[in-house]
Structures are given as structure tokens and as C-alpha cells.
Amino acid sequence: MANVQPLGDRVLLQPLEAEEKTKGGIIVPDSAKEKPQEGKVIAVGKGKVEDGKTVALEVKVGNRVLYGKYSGTEIRVDGEEMLIVKEEDILAIIKK
Q1: For residue 32, how many other CB atoms are within 10 A of its CB?
Q2: Is the pTM of this model over 0.85?
Q3: CA–CA dist 24, 3 (Å, integer)
Q4: Are the C-beta atoms of residues 82 and 42 closer than 8 Å to each other?
Q5: Which residues on neighbouring strands pair with residue 76, listed in sequence order?
């Protein structure tokens, strides 16, 4: 999908849209929505170098993850909003 290959311990994420409605059924307008903090891993770098050895990243392509609110750098890839973050900015992998 993406023509971007992250380097080192960086990860390319596709932010997932915030919910349009609350659990109580209230529709949330665009102006009140928070920046999404959940995303899908699109591509990963080769890993970080420690003591001369490359250590693979814990996240894999296809994982759904939670990331820090102000993490990463926003970019556009093929007309879509994407985010490049360091693996340390990923807080958790969401299990299904």
C-alpha cells in the first residue's frame, strides 16, 4: 500500500477514525473530536541498533496500536493521512 519505508525503529501508522457517536447516541461534531490515538501499522523499520546488533521491533504490519497523543510526524501518502512514530511512542498493541 505505502511507498514509504520507515528507517530504524520508526513505524508508519494509519490513524483510525474517532467514533462518530458516543455510547449514549450523541453525535460528535468534527470540531469536538479529539485527534485519534489508535492506528494500524502499515510498515515498520528494520529495528534499532544496540551494541552493534539490530534488534527487531515488537510491532508488526497489521497490528492495531495505541500511541501517544502528540507523537510522531504527520505525512500524506497516496492522498491519505499517515503518521511516522518511533516505536517507543507506541503504548500498546490492541489484541482482538
Answers
A1: 8
A2: no
A3: 40
A4: yes
A5: 81
